Amino acid sequence: MYCTLIFLMQNSFPMREWHVKNMEKTIIKHVKGLSPDATKFERRMYKRYGGIHKVQMRIKYDIKHGVNNEEVILFLQKIRTGMEFSDLLKSDGSLDRLNEIESYFI
Q1: What is the CA radius of gyration of the chain?
Q2: Is 10 domain-assigned?
Q3: What is the pTM of this model?
């Protein structure tokens, strides 16, 4: 008869992967900005939830729940240099918004 030991590990951040994806979506949405043909409702929602202060608060919330500062900085670098985000950086003011986020987290 042998005994198998089961080690229980505490998962401090059970939804860490979700928060990483949420951080990525938040950054992409902010860098993309508001489309020029946005409706009145979209402009109002962007004014309410799309400012840099609200974006920083959402990212800080994700950091509190398991995302590392290094992951945020690496994702910002990935947006800046990655080919899959090249169309994202073509919109007006996107580099300014990206620099604004990057300056806060560096």
Answers
A1: 18
A2: no
A3: 0.84
